[in-house]
Amino acid sequence: MRKLTLVIFGALAVSSLAYALDQDQAEKVTAVRQGALKVVGWNIGPMSAMAKEEIPYDADLFALHAERIAVLTGMLPEVFKADTRDNPVDTEALDAIWEDFDEFTRLANAAENQALQASAMAKNKDFGDARAALGELGQACKDCHEKFRED
Ligand code: HEC
Question: 69: which residues sit within 8 A by CB, 6+ positions away?
């Protein structure tokens, strides 16, 4: 964990000076990005299953998963900041991210806000509203994937 933290800080410090990342840093930051998004996927799974009534709806759990997604999507501009276009890394991230980083940031913020909304709706104890907010959140994921993630 300590090592990981140092790696992230290292990558960001370098990127803010607009130097290219070396290959080792690029691979590590790519792993952090994909790890964060895997954990986003991990959290949305049970929310979807609840919305589809495949598992019992638990408002507290629904809100918890949504809050984790808010934290993780809120981190996306930070972890994607370093420009790794010139590094040969195994990624589905499109070059468009660094061509229009403002738009990438906007869509990350939209997903974060939508996740917070889903959490608020679950805390209000209204299943219908929570389910509708999850639908909007899913759309926010899709909006970013359509522009910035390889098919
Ligand atoms: C601001 C843009 C953005 C948003 C918002 C976003 N994603 Fe993604 N997502 C990406 C990008 C870019 C990748 C490809 C990362 C890579 O391969 O390096 C990705 C990849 C993923 C992956 C694959 C991770 C892996 O490598 O195994 C999952 C799962 C995922 N996203 C789920 C979601 C879900 C669920 C949401 C909504 C709650 C979401 N994403 C919101 C940009 C976004």
Answer: 40, 43, 44, 111, 115, 118, 137
How far is Cα 82 from Cα 138, in angstroms, rounded to an integer? Answer: 26
**What is the residue whose two structure tokens read 């990438």?**
104
What confidence tens digit (pLDDT) does each residue in 3-35 have? 665 556 655 555 554 457 889 999 999 999 999
Residue with token string 């805390």 = 123
Q: Which atom of ligand 1 is nearest to the CA of 94?
A: 12
Percentage of residues in the chain having pLDDT higher than 70? 87
Look up residue 141 and give its amino acid. Answer: C
- Tell me how far the alpha carbon of residue 87 lies from the centroid of ligand 1, in angstroms: 19
Closest C-alpha to ligand 1, atom 20: 37
What's the start-to-end Cα distance of the chain, in Å?
32
Number of neighbouring beta carbons within 10 Å of residue 23: 12
pLDDT tens, position by position, 32-51: 999 999 999 999 999 999 99
CA 131/CA 117 separation, integer angstroms: 11
Nearest CA to ligand 1 atom 40: 141
Q: Which of 141, 1, 7 is nearest to 76 (CA)?
A: 141
